[in-house]
Amino acid sequence: MTHRVAVRPSDVEIEVLDGEDLFSAAGRLGYRWPTVCGGKGTCRTCFVRIEEGAENCSPVDPLEREGIEALRKPVDGLTRLACRLRVEGPVTVTKRGVRRRVQE
């Protein structure tokens, strides 16, 4: 089963598979997502703001909690790391810099 994540302001829609994190889904579908660590949960560059659908998001795990605290953001379920975020329904997030990879 897939779940739709709308990414603002780029108006990208990403279909996330059950058990897949948002960062990996974006990569699988050919999108470049801002990152330094490549999805290991350590650089925190991939963080998103949940605009709608927070109830459809996985719980914040310990590594993600540490990252959100390091960003000096509240651990309120609305700031999430895309590389740790799994969804179980429609979600809308804000993340600048998400775009299609250029095909060579």
UniProtKB/TrEMBL annotation:
Protein name: Ferredoxin
Positions of the 2Fe-2S ferredoxin-type domain: 3-104
Family annotation (PROSITE patterns): 2FE2S_FER_2
Top-level taxon of origin: Bacteria
Gene3D superfamilies according to UniProt: 3.10.20.30
InterPro entries: 2Fe-2S_ferredoxin-like_sf, 2Fe-2S_ferredoxin-type, Beta-grasp_dom_sf
MF-aspect GO terms: iron-sulfur cluster binding
